[in-house]
């Protein structure tokens, strides 16, 4: 299968924060941001694989900054690595300053998607070839994160997670 770069499937979604999407402090509700990130990541996974993709795991979410009502929020999803049927997707969330237009990083997350066939069975996807330094860094660490996620999900025994263990040696 022909390899693809992260920029081949990068997905950017920009939208406003409306009153119905906020918490009592008038900041974006966390679940709403999770849904926006899931949508963008799902499109990136689909563009990479050209298959139906399902969310297998939310590996990491950091709500570092509150996102106030009325903000212009950009969610950017980029594939970092593909394994056999699974794909790790990084999501970076940016807020745009109304006056200057400058973007500030607000949050980030890492999701795992699996490409499936018409019956919902996992199916092989193309490999990823990272290009930039950041893409190469994320690619290199993706196997460790996959092993951690599988161990936490009870799908891999800790002693089998060799790359993850190497981090602590
Ligand atoms: C995700 C799903 C397709 C995996 O199916 P499965 O029968 O467990 O298949 P496998 O064990 O072969 O796993 C398939 C791939 O997913 C990976 N995977 C499964 N669970 C994972 C987890 N928690 N974290 C990271 N990767 C995971 C496996 O490592 C494997 O990767 P690889 O093929 O690249 O090596 C299946 O569990 C499913 O359909 N879940 C529901 C998805 C869904 O509805 N999501 C929306 C949320 S409501």
Describe this structure in words.
The chain is of the alpha+beta class and about 170 residues long. The chain has a single domain (about 5-130), classed as Hotdog Thioesterase (Thiol Ester Dehydrase, Chain A, Roll), CATH 3.10.129. Helix content is about 30%, strand content about 30%. The protein contains 4 helices and 5 strands. The chain has helices at about 5-10, 30-50, 135-150, 160-165, and strands at about 10-15, 50-60, 70-80, 85-95, 105-115. The chain has a 5-stranded antiparallel β-sheet with strand order 1-3-4-5-2. A hairpin with a 3-residue loop joins strand 3 and strand 4 (about 85-95). It is globular, with a radius of gyration of 17 Å. The mean pLDDT is about 95. Coenzyme A binds near residues 116 and 153.
Short description:
With 169 residues, the chain is an alpha+beta fold. The chain is built from 4 helices and 5 strands. It has one domain: Hotdog Thioesterase (Thiol Ester Dehydrase, Chain A, Roll), CATH 3.10.129.10.
What's the number of domains?
A: 1
Which ligands are bound? coenzyme A
Q: Which fold name corresponds to the CATH topology?
A: Thiol Ester Dehydrase, Chain A
Structural class: alpha+beta
Could you give the distance between the termini?
35 Å
CATH superfamily: Hotdog Thioesterase
Q: Please report the total strand number as a whole number.
A: 5
Shape, principal axes of CA atoms: globular
Which stretches are poorly predicted, pLDDT < 50 over at least 5 residues? none
The biggest beta sheet is recorded as: 5 strands, antiparallel
Give the helices and strands as they follow along the chain: HEHEEEEHH
**Using only CA atoms, what is the Rg?**
17 Å
Share of β-strand residues: 25-35%
Task: Characterize the quaternary organization of these chains.
Answer: single chain
């Amino acid at each position: 299968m022909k390899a693809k770069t992260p920029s081949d499937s990068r997905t950017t979604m920009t939208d406003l924060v409306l009153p119905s999407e906020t918490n009592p402090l008038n900041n974006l509700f966390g679940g709403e941001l999770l849904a926006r990130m899931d949508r963008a990541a799902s499109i990136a996974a689909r563009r990479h694989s050209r298959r139906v993709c399902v969310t297998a795991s939310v590996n990491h979410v950091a709500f570092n900054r509150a996102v106030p009502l009325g903000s212009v929020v950009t969610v950017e999803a980029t594939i970092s690595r593909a394994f056999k049927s699974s794909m790790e997707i990084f999501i970076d969330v940016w807020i745009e300053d109304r006056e200057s237009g400058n973007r500030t990083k607000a949050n980030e997350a890492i999701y795992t998607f699996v490409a499936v066939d018409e019956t919902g069975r996992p199916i092989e996807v193309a490999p990823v070839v990272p290009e930039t330094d950041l893409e190469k860094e994320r690619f290199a660490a993706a196997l460790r994160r996959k092993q951690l996620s599988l161990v936490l999900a009870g799908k891999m025994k800790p002693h089998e997670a060799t790359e993850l263990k190497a981090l602590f040696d």
